[in-house]
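Re: that chain you flagged

S.,

Sorry for the slow reply, it's been a week of failed gels. I finally had a moment to sit down with the sequence you sent. For the record, here it is as I used it:
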Amino acid sequence: MYMYDDDETVESFYDEDEHWHDSDSEDEDYLKVSNLETLKSLRESVNWEIDKERSEFLCQFNSLIKDWEGQLPNLRYIFRSEEIDWLLTEGVKKNSLFSRVPIIDFVVRTGYKDEPKLNQDGKPSSRRTTPLHRAAVRCSIFHWDIFHNLFKIYDRFDVNYTDESGLTHFHVACQWGCDEVVEKFLELGQDPNILVEKTGDSPLHLAVATDHTKIAELLLKSGANPNSINIMGYTPLHTMSKRFVDDYVAKILFQISDEKYRPVQVDVRDIEGNTPLHLALKCGGGYLVTSLLRNGANPNLTNAEGSTPLHIICKREEYFDADLARLFFLINGNLHQTLQVDALDSLGRTPLQWAVANILPYEVDVLLKHGADLSTFVFPTESYFGKRFESQSDEVSLNFKLRLASAALAIAHRLETRGYKLDRTNVNDIPAARCIIYTHLRIDIAMNMLIYFKKLSIIPKLHIFSMNETKNKKPLHLEFL
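Prediction finished late last night. Pasting the structure tokens below so you have them in one place:
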């Protein structure tokens, strides 16, 4: 026998503007009976142990709930709890990037609430994999609403369900920004330092990894360890330093930890020897770098490769936050901290050599202004230069090659101005200075490049062709060989 709440109404599944209107018409009464009876019939006709039948049922079920009319069913009278778990899990697995999950929405609307299974002692068992665990593995940042809806179904916060990897519902709530859920767990005595067995991540690791400031604050005020280390050797500070974010979460971390008399250890090294400062510099997070330095980060520590933070700045292979080197010197100067400008890494290379090898003219300029030693400077050989300077198709790399050639000339000029003697061998070692550049290039720029090479007593093989002079009507191109 199936029982339903006569007072409950339902909105149309996809259109917020469509509403169910009460009516005594025979047609609407028929629809109500039809939907309920159809659902009952579908469930009774499927053998849940046969994959094919389950899949066919899932398609029919999706079609039915999409156009559902009338009273919502009491799912507990139609399905076993394991079957509803399966339906919700399949809904998570089949959702697309931005779509809602109709099955989850429908189950929430019916008011269904999961009930825990009891162990031999009659107490709820926490060892169980739920759709929330599955969603945590499969979903992206675009699906935060899925987790909020699933927690409306799995709403027992006195039981912290744990899957085979050690991931718990509490971890999922921290990772996906479910503030109210986290608060309820903590109110019921949940340990804020419970670790994911497989990764060693704490709830605080997961919260800062996804920039959930309020949850991080809740955890810290509840006694979360700000220096917890996962299997990669990351503290929460490492985790946030790997992301290009502002320093707001870090400020909260430092402030509350100080208030709780648990100072944040800013110079912990991970398994590769990197401190949070190393990682923040790799990601170019200027605000976070500033916050780390002002809270005591050592600007000269080396990682497993012997790289100091200055090496990290000069080993980056992309043009972003070119002002980071200047900022790094500025903050350390304000803090009266001396930087080891000429430190050697495990390969015997200085930050200046890496900056030249990566064709970073701004970094070269900053290093020279702050005393980088040219008397012992050895110009990088071709083997230093990264794979990004290898030959590329002209169609793909027109602007890239031109930019590199321009930057290479700027570096040569800076070195020469500071007294370093360049020769043809040095310039030929820079792939960007001898690449072939096909682009719409103004003739005056090309001639200026030629004049500068002549000043260095280097006369490259230079050809300049205008569009009108070539039979094939190719754009102007400049060739250094």
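What I noticed first: The first strand starts at residue 436 and ends at 438.

Talk soon,
D.
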